Every structure is written in C-alpha cells, then in structure tokens.
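>> Question from a student workshop board

For tomorrow's exercise we were told to take the sequence and the ligand below, predict the bound structure, and bring the output to class. My setup keeps failing. Could a helper post the expected result so I can at least see what it should look like? The ligand is magnesium ion.
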Amino acid sequence: MSYVIEGKTGSWEIVVGLEVHAQVVSKSKLFSGASTTFGAEPNSQVSLVDAAFPGMLPVINRECVAQAVRTGLGLNARINLESRFDRKNYFYADLPQGYQISQFAHPIVGEGTIEIELSSGETRKIGITRLHMEQDAGKLIHDQDPTKSMVDLNRAGVALMEIVSEPDIREPEEAGAYLRKLRQILRYLGTCDGNMEEGSMRADVNVSVRKAGEPFRTRCEIKNVNSIRFVMQAIEVEAARQVEIWENGGEVDQETRLFDAARGETRTMRSKEDAHDYRYFPDPDLLPLVIEQDWVDALKAALPELPDAKRARFQSDYGIPFYDAGVLVAEQSVADFYETVAKGRDGKLAVSWVTGDLFAALNRTGKTIETSPVSAEALGQMLDLIADGTINGKIAKEVFEDMVETGESPDAIVEKKGLRQVTDTGVIDAAIDAVMAKNADKVAEYRSGKDKLFGFFVGQVMKETKGKANPALVNDALKSKLDA
Ligand code: ADP
Ligand code: MG
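>> Workshop helper replied:
Here is what the output should look like for this input. Compare the format with yours to find the bug.
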C-alpha cells in the first residue's frame, strides 16, 4: 500500500469515490429548445419549460442523449437501451419545478472503467458505476442587492451527465489522475468541455478511511469541488479529520460537507439525505427512453480516436516512448499538431522539437498550441531542411527562434540570413587550413597524442564558418588533415 495515514493506532487507508457532474455540449437544453451559450445576459435563455410554467411539457433532446451514449462508449461502459427519468423532489429557490428530472434506478449507462496512470508509471483501472442524465438548476445571485437575492435561470434545464465512480480510489494522486483522464476523454469525445473554472465540470468527493483489509466505514461527501487541486487537498484534509475522530473513540457522521480552500478545511453543510428523502418517482411526463442498438453502433463507429488508443498508435507509428506519447496526447490539439509535424518525418526528432523547443517558446510568449506563432506545417518544413542538409541542427535552433519572432517560413529565414549549410568541401578545407595555421601549437599537441583537442578544432572550424558547416563533413576532413 503506497499511501497511508499513520495514526497512533496504526495505518489508515483512504477510500474515495467521485461523482462528477459534466455539462453536456449541446446547443439546447435537455428538455427545451432554449440556448446553452455560456455568459449570456441573465434570464435571456429561459423557455417556459425551464421556468416551470404550469402545463409545460418536457421533450427530450436527441443530441443530449447521443452525447451521453458517446460518453458511455468512451468509458467502455454498458449502454442501456432502455432507461427512465425520475423526479428528484426538493425545494430550493433556484429550482422552479420543485424537482429535478434525473435518472435514478435506470440510468442510460451502466458499468465501465477508466485507466489512470500514476507518476510512478504504474497504471490502474478505476471502475465506473454508472452515468445518468439530469437537469442542472439555476443560479442564485446574492451580491447584486443589499436586501434581495436574484435568480438566473439560464442554467436551469441544461443537460448534465453525472458520472459516478466505484470507491476504487485510494489516494489524492489517483483522484487527480482520474479527473484528468476523465476530462481528457470527455474533451476528445466533444461531449463536455471539461472547463472547471466555468463550472462545466465539478466533482462531489466521497471520502472514508479504514484500516487495511477492513470493510468500508462511513463516508462524508464533499460537494461541488471545482478544481482538481482542490479535490486532492480536500481528500487529504478530510481523511486526516476522520482518522482523528476514529482514533479518539468517536464516530464519523455521514454528512455533506464543503471544502474551504482558503482555510484548507472541510465544514459541515448538512446531514446527508438519503434517496428516500427525495421521494423519487418516475416522471409521468416522460416515457421510458428507448434507443436502438443500430443507433448506438452508428455512434460508436463515428467516435474519434481516444487518448489511450492514440498514445499506443503514436508509440508504434512514430517509434516514440510511452512517456512522450502521453505528453502529446494529453490534449488533442497538441496531438494533432505533433502528427502534422511527424507524418512522413523523423518522429523522435519531431517530439523533441514539439515538447522541447516549441513548448518552451509557447511558455515564454504566453501562447498556446492554438495560437502558436509557428504552425505545424512550418515546423515540419524546418525538419525537412534539416533532413535534406540545407541547415544543420544547431542553425535550426536559430531559424526556429526567428520563426517564433517573425512567423516567417523557415525557407525565407534561411535565405534572408544566408544560413544555408556549407557542404562545399573546398570551403570547409579552407576553414580548416586557416584554423590549423592559427593554432600550430595545438596541432602539435594533438599530434603528440592529446586526442581531446579534436573537439576544440571542430568548434573553431564551426566558428570560422559561422556555424553553417556540415558537422559530419567537418569531422571527416579534420580527421584526415590532422592525422596526415
Ligand atoms: P449517493 O447517491 O447517496 O451519493 P452512492 O451509493 O451513489 O450514494 O455513492 C456515491 C459515491 O460514493 C460513489 O462514487 C461511491 O463510489 C462512493 N462511496 C460509496 N461508499 C463509499 C465509502 N465507504 N467511502 C468512500 N466513498 C464511497
Ligand atoms: Mg450522490
């Protein structure tokens, strides 16, 4: 067991299960035609269905269902051809219906798995319990008026997928790896933008502790944590709190808690409600949702290549290591960029330019791969110039920096600056002669056995040719002249 908390009564293991709410990418809401665009004027995207006017009827949005099915397929999960919608009843001012339409006993997606990779290089499988569709609620605004609260219903009725994991996670790092991997899969699928700052992905974190080999103990659920870092911190502090309680002879109460990032602690929000408190019952306005296997198969056939498959393909197609392939596929835009550069070229050289020089340049200039001053095509052309001997590897660094600055093509830069590699043996020989004449003493030392001076001569000849000489030719010619 890698991660344990040492208490005075022995070691404790952490048990974590995550419930992730992922906002579905779709133009309109789950049961209405109102728009879902982020950042619109409050209450400008609210249909009568969303505002729960009497007599309004929900109509299921086919695209939202397709997105849930795609996500289930991407999580290697069972797709349930028949699922149902239930009403989850509760009162809150951001929920005009007085209930949320959700899926309780019959979700659209059943068991699946996500494979995560840890910093040790190990991989682990985390079980997915289910994925169900539900409506989001509106948003209360408390800071616009000193005496009143406002409500914005733009978000009311937007489709969410709740993705529930098995209690398979054993440490903060695994929770982080799980969320990153889930977000990556959702982004590749295009079913959720995974943007935690905008709230389109948020996690409820269930935490308990136990002694190794014991059955599970009571858990607490930390609600609505909105960054991966906070999820990891919340697990750490919540587990420590529970260990402290158990070790002092107390009992952990099952409750819903909040994570206060500023104070680095969790606080009671309310005692945990059970399913029966919500009086779930089948929504009488909606028929059971029945989908066809053919439709599921068609959605499956149209799925994009997912990160794990892409990583394996990059390793075999381009001969690059597992680690590098993982860095490249972390974001689809980076993977696409790399593939444009590497296709038909030296894959290893391409990876070192993309994850080395290019990433460094993006960092330095505050740009992203999408706004990169050097296009994938241009970087590819530069690799061609190296491959065909127009420039050497050292000059390539100079050309690249110029590309970052000016956005010009590598050809134009090579011409403009006269950087074409010198392969003319006459020119190289002349440079060598000049260097040897200037350094007669060193030549003598070399000839009397000081082999190490060879590097010095190479450096001087490169300098003499302003770095443009073909290094292999310089090596050969130097050898024969010095050893003559
Ligand atoms: P609810 O619907 O009441 O939130 P669920 O049974 O759906 O409860 O479980 C919610 C989450 O809690 C799941 O992710 C599950 O893996 C996790 N979980 C269940 N038992 C434990 C436990 N003892 N410790 C930590 N997490 C748990
Ligand atoms: Mg729950």
